[in-house]
Amino acid sequence: MIVTFSYQLWQRKMRRQRFRCCIGVVLFMTGCRSPAPTITPITVRGVTLIAMDGTAPMEDATVVVRGNRIEVVGPTGHVRVPRDATVIDGTGKYLVPGLIDLHVHLSKARKSSLGLFVINGVTTVRDMGGDHRELLEWRRQVRTGRSVGPRILMAGPYLESASNVERMRGDPPEERVEPFERLRIPIGSPADAHRVVDSLAALELDFLKIRTVQDRDTYMAINGAANAHGLVLVGHAVAAPEEVVDAGQDGVEHFFYPTLDTLTRDQRMAIWGRLRDAGVVVVPTLVTLTRFELAPIEHLRAVMWDSLGTVEPRRRYVSRYLVRDWIEQLSEREERQRRGAPELYRRVLDSTLRNLREMIEADVHVLVGSDVAVFNVFPGSVHDELAVFVESLGLAPVDALQRATARSAAFLGIGDSVGMIREGYVADLLLLDASPLADIRNSSRIAAVIRNGYVFDRDGLEEVLQDVRNAEDLRIDRWGR
């Protein structure tokens, strides 16, 4: 059965937002080139197709791509291969839609990370707060084929409580790493909320991201202003679940805290039912707990100073800015360790996993994001998050994959052209050497990536990786303080 989102509020907001920001289907089908699709048709022949449209896997399937769109899908014996097609032998391999990571921070990861997402089969990202001006430029470069990268949907700057921004300003200048003035907008009152949201509504962005709030009245005002403009509002759980529903917040990142341990299961299930009925989407980013807050501090120190990638191969591709930011994050993590925070986070993880299992049982939309730019979370950590969904939440691999493809695309309002392998859809495809349905960790065994109709085979992926190795931002930080 094809996954659809039944709630009208989200769809209405996304329709208005896509029209206002010019990110409708036509743009995705014609303007997102990274680089431009090849003129010669591409045929993947003899592959096992996992379409993510609710149908069973199709063995010995053939997919024809022309330009940046999927032209034909069907059994190999019934598909005519164009005479001039470039044929990719899919025998013994598996074809799935490109993955979607619903929580990244590209400004902190820097521009070199764009290619890393594609290398890891991530063809769409939702940026959850960054330097709006440069994100727009990177998105345009990807769309016009000047840069290799994923499709980017963005929030622009974070919405922060005025008190939190004031606290940041109070830090000694020599201790500041993040140029927070470019990333965070202070909101200290309901009047501020309406003024800021009115200003943001005039910009090219796809939704709003709330991180901290001054007080309840200001929180309600932010939601009211966003709704008045038809803007989707997502972000941290800055209120109890019931208040999130009442306020009209559309999506929650990370986890609810306090973790509702004092409630009975029936009471929690009633709350999750309200989230479901309101269409609130939850993106738990569990890898921020498993790979950072609960990882052994000795391992984190080893990763931090492992610039050659011998402990963690992905470490060698971390930008110079992010290394500086991670040093700060590690110092804060060490301080939390001294205060006994890991024990608290273990309890939080246990409670969060229970809550998420209950949410899934209640049909709440729990989707996949990684929070790239948190220490020890990398472009491609969406594969780690998928493994947690299967191994800790008990989902079948096909269910987890659907939450990182078709269901995420529907959530973003692009499910009519992205997230499934269907005729007419954008050719964002991931060719795997082994079945992800047999073992979810096979989602990272990548043989080739087709991004918007352009094929990156093993040699092509290596070329992208070489460009990342040569990127200036791996050696020089021109963005942070």
Question: Can you describe what's shown?
Answer:
The structure is a single chain. This protein is of the alpha/beta class. The protein contains 18 helices and 18 strands. Strands 1, 2, 3, 4, 5, 16, 17 and 18 form an 8-stranded mixed β-sheet that branches. Strand 11, helix 8 and strand 12 form a beta-alpha-beta unit. Helix 4 runs antiparallel to helix 18, helix 9 runs parallel beside helix 10 and helix 12 runs antiparallel to helix 13. The protein is globular and about 65 Å long. It starts with 7 loop residues before the first helix and ends in a 12-residue tail after the last helix. 48% of the residues are buried. The N terminus is likely disordered.
